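Changelog note: in this version the structure field was regenerated for every chain. One regenerated record is shown below for reference.
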Amino acid sequence: MTGQTDRIFGIGFLVMGLGLFAYSLSFRETDLMGDLGPGFLPGLVGVILAILGTLQAIRPGNKQAEPIDRQRFILAVVFFLAVAVYALFFAWFGFSWPSFVFLIAVMSLLGGRSPRSLAIYALLSAVFVGLIGWVLLHVLSVPLRGVWFLN
């Protein structure tokens, strides 16, 4: 990206982050003794996105971007399709199974695809999904459907 493109995308991320934060304020507070409420995570993501967008707009890069070859473009398309399928399956199956499969798929796209690598990816994904599910459900009290071993 050029400096001008960085500024344009930075301003876009700033606007998107502020919009997400403003939208998160419209969620009804639950008032359940310390519950963070449904607007906490979208609000936090919005603030972080706005901060990073501001930094990108203020201090753009000065290097010209390299052209994307066909293989990397296909990898990006497959990744975005995986994110869309993950979101769809998350709504149907809850948190754990879609997250587990999504993590293995992304690690396979970015790393090796040998049986040993896939076994390591499966183990890491299971640990990560279990840990994140436990934190969200029991530490942050986020009501999540389909968390392994914890409901």
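Spot check on this record: The chain has two domains: 1-65, 69-151. The CA atoms of residues 21 and 144 lie 22 Å apart.
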